[in-house]
Amino acid sequence: MDKTRSDFPLKDYYSDIYSTYDRVNRLFTFGKDVTWRRKAARACLRSDPSSVLDLCTGTGDFILEVARLSAPSGKYPLLTGYDFSTAMLEEARRKTDLISKGEQIPPVTFTEGDVAVMPFKKGSFDAVGITFGIRNLVYENSHAAKHLAEIYRVLRKGGRFIILESCKPENRIWRFFHNFYLRFILPYLGGLISGNTKAYRYLAKSSREYYTITEMVAMLEGAGFGIVSGRLLFMGSVMLLEAEKK
Ligand SMILES: C[S@@+](CC[C@H](N)C(=O)[O-])C[C@H]1O[C@@H](n2cnc3c(N)ncnc32)[C@H](O)[C@@H]1O
Predict the structure, then answer these.
(1) Which residue's CA is the closest to the ligand 1 atom numbered 22?
(2) Is the CB of 33 within 6 Å of ligand 1?
(3) How does strand 51-55 pair with strand 125-131?
(4) What pLDDT shows up at residue 197?
(5) What is the model's pTM?
(6) If you count Cβ atoms within 10 Å of the first and of the last residue's Cβ in the chain, which end, N or C, has fewer?
(7) So what's the pLDDT on residue 130?
């Protein structure tokens, strides 16, 4: 069987779970996903970018965190969230409007499209971030090389690429619990809350089978990126990688 996913109904899955996506994230990471995205946003802002692209933005949590953290400086970077799911982007726009009513944050533009063919010129962004999205682009995906090449193209030379993603824990005992949780708990409870068990079965399986940090580093280096830093969070279940376009 062809295990690649070019014909996989990924877009439909996300468009189906958009309304409960944030709630399920908070619940199943015990609220930790907020802290992890904040760390990724801090890493992204460390190079003082004037333009940031958030790929697979979903409901916009990462780019909104970048917006919040950059607000006090008064130097507003150009912020763009990019995703191929109309429903996820609608939710992102709704959240942005709501937040903008209570807080002063830089404007965020949300653009719809596929990472495989982005409507941005070469070197358009000082920083590109992706939180819990890269495994959609590279895990069992026949367009993996194309996705990485497009990311490399839209990033300026010396620009940072920040990745937050699930990771296969190295510690065997922790990996046992991690796998148990992803195999027997998340697909069913996520399915129950969202009404789409298939989507959560995919999310859990791709998390469980995703790469180690070493494999991820090798993949990025193979695509031409240089690794700036890498760290593991939540006992090795999550990785935060900082790469750059050489
Ligand atoms: C797991 S969600 C991550 C959302 C968000 N970044 C977060 O931190 O929670 C993955 C997102 O990637 C989007 N996506 C998957 N493949 C894509 C592609 N090839 N092009 C654009 N968006 C894609 C989906 O629509 C979905 O919103």
Answers:
(1) 83
(2) no
(3) parallel
(4) 92
(5) 0.94
(6) N
(7) 98
